[in-house]
Every structure is written in C-alpha cells, then in structure tokens.
Amino acid sequence: MVDITQRLALTPAEAAEAIDVSLPTLYQLIKRERDPLPSFRIGRKILIPVLSMQQWIEAQACAVESA
C-alpha cells in the first residue's frame, strides 16, 4: 500500500492503488468532463495532488449521500 501521508503528489498508478481502483478507471476519472479527479502534468508525467484527491473523494462521498 502507498503511504500517502508523506507525499504531496502521486503518480496515477500510486493513486489507483491508494483508492483501490484499476489504472484505466483512474485515467477515466481524470479525463471525465464533470467533476474530474484533479491532476496536473510536469512534462509528460501526470501527478495527482494528495490533498486535492482527498478533498475530491470527500466531495464524491457527499454527493452520493445527498442523492
């Protein structure tokens, strides 16, 4: 398991492992039009900020609860 407490950003593979989804699913979450998983590029490398990912997960959970 990835220890995300010490990292500012994760690779897509690390983020997928951290939230227990497949890598293709994670890429779909990044690319979706409505409320995508926050990410940024440095050159060709995609990174997912840990804090933004945690906030995004909380927002998704709230959306499910209110639906």
Give the overall shape. Answer: globular
How would you classify the helix and strand content by structural class? alpha+beta
Oligomeric state: single chain
Main-sheet strand order equals: 1-3-2
Can you walk through the features of this model?
The protein has 67 residues and is of the alpha+beta class. It has one domain (10-66). It contains three helices and three strands; from the N terminus they run βααββα. It has helices spanning 12-18, 23-31, 50-66; strands spanning 9-10, 40-42, 45-49. A three-stranded antiparallel beta sheet has the order 1-3-2. A hairpin with a 2-residue loop joins strand 2 (40-42) and strand 3. It starts with 8 loop residues before the first strand and ends with a helix.
Question: What brief labels describe this structure?
Answer:
67 residues, alpha+beta, 3 helices, 3 strands, 49% helix
Write the layout of secondary structure elements.
Elements: E1 9-10, H1 12-18, H2 23-31, E2 40-42, E3 45-49, H3 50-66
Antiparallel strand pairs: 1-3, 2-3
Q: How would you sum up this structure in a few lines?
A:
The protein is α+β, with helices and mostly antiparallel strands. It contains 3 helices and 3 strands, in the order βααββα. 49% of the residues lie in helices and 15% in strands.
